Amino acid sequence: MLCAKSCVSISRWIARIGSLIVVGFLLLLLFGKGLPPISILHLCFPLGVMLGLIVAWFLEGIGSIITIVSIAAFYLIHYRLSGTLPSGPFFLIAAAPSVFFLISKFMRQDMATETEYDAQ
C-alpha cells in the first residue's frame, strides 16, 4: 500500500511539474513576439492544451481529456488543412503531462476500490 501511495504521488508531481514547464514554455511562445492572430489550430494547440493542463491540476480526468482531445483535434485539423501531419515530437511532448495525470487518477481510484473491498 505504501508503494502504491508513493507511485501515485510521484506520477502526480511529474504531471504537475511537467505541466508547469509546458504551460510556461507555451506562454513564452505565444507572447514572446506579440499575440498571433487566433485560428482554429491555435484554439487546439496551444490554447486547448494549456487549458487542459491547468484544469488537470484540480480535476485530473477532465483536464487530461481536454488536453488529449485538443491535441488530437490539432493533428486532425492540421492534416485536413495541409495534407501532412505536424513534424517533430514537440506537440506530443507538450501533451505528455496529461498521461501522468491520468495514471495518477486511475491509480487513486484503484486504491480507493481496494480499500472499499478490504473494508467489507
Give the overall shape, derived from the CA principal axes.
Answer: elongated
Strand content: under 5%
Query: How would you classify the helix and strand content by structural class?
Result: mainly alpha
Question: Low-confidence parts, pLDDT < 50 over ≥5 residues?
Answer: none
Encode the helix/strand succession as letters.
Answer: HHHH
- Please tally the helical runs, counting DSSP H or I stretches of 4 or more residues: 4
Average residue-wise pLDDT: 90
Backbone CA Rg: 17 Å
Helix content range of the residues, please? Answer: over 70%
Strand element count? 0
Task: State the end-to-end distance.
Answer: 17 Å
Biggest β-sheet: count, sense, barrel?
none
What does this structure look like?
With 120 residues, the chain is mainly alpha-helical. It has a domain at 15-27 and 38-99. The protein has four helices and no strands. It has helices at 2-31, 40-56, 60-82, 90-119. The longest helix is centred in the N-terminal third of the chain and has 30 residues, at 2-31.
